[in-house]
Amino acid sequence: MIEMIDVKKTYPNGVSAIGGINVKIKPGEFVYVVGTSGAGKSTFIKMMYREERPTSGNIIVNGVSLPKLRNTKVPLFRRNIGVVFQDYKLLQTLSVYENVAFAMEVIESTPAQIKKRVMEVLELVGLKHKVRMLPSELSGGEQQRISIARSIVNSPKIVIADEPTGNLDPETSWEIMNIFEQINKNGTTVVMATHNRDIVNNMPHRVIAIEDGQIVRDEQRGEYGYEN
Ligand code: ADP
Ligand code: ADP
């Protein structure tokens, strides 16, 4: 499903962010990516959805070889990948409903399909009663729920999340994690960069630890393993 072979990434300014990674993630897995700030976690996951290209090596995601993938083919490739960010990245002038529907309009679903599916995913994240509100009228946790609804509305095979609970209090973080757990139980692969020790230790899954651009630990049922 996701495979990296001898992947290296050096940014144009000469910073080596990833120094030779080999990894395989199977369909249906739930993987935490942990490591200190600047370790290379974001770069590692950005390469999975072709936000960054590797400097060398190969990355195959859903059967697509990414280094060679043309820019014009990237939107099609990304239909099978949902992405969730720490800061939600919602469109502030659009309602909850419109933020989620937008992702389906882009791929030209019919209005009937859109309405049915948008309400379905808003129900899954528990926001069906707030469809007409604007992101600014909602709490951080509610905004992250919209962002998760948007990420899964096109039924992707993989959801990638970069610090999704980074701006949320512990209780809200657990609510958000339970949604990811549900999405994973429904068969979607989840890859999540996180600093949340409590969650990693108490909702155990595979842990890939990155330090200085290398995988230093890869455990099927791992622990967070850092002081903070
Ligand atoms: P993490 O997500 O673990 O904090 P990053 O992947 O963001 O780590 O960063 C890894 C290293 O690459 C850091 O030294 C960071 O400063 C550098 N880096 C990240 N993005 C860029 C970029 N766009 N240009 C140059 N250097 C970058
Ligand atoms: P995160 O907290 O998610 O790890 P970062 O703080 O590492 O994010 O980076 C935030 C943004 O800035 C990213 O888009 C990253 O690519 C970019 N960035 C990070 N470090 C550098 C850098 N040294 N030079 C240029 N861009 C960078």
Automatic annotation (TrEMBL):
One of its GO terms (biological process) is cell division. The keyword Transport applies. Pfam families: ABC_tran. InterPro entries: AAA+_ATPase, ABC_transporter-like_ATP-bd, ABC_transporter-like_CS, ABC_transpr_LolD-like, Cell_div_FtsE, P-loop_NTPase. GO terms for molecular function: ATP binding; ATP hydrolysis activity; transmembrane transporter activity. Residues 2-228 form the ABC transporter domain. It is a peripheral membrane protein. One of its GO terms (cellular component) is plasma membrane. PROSITE patterns: ABC_TRANSPORTER_1, ABC_TRANSPORTER_2. It comes from the Bacteria. Transmembrane segments: none annotated. Belongs to the ABC transporter superfamily. NCBIfam families: FtsE. This is Cell division ATP-binding protein FtsE.
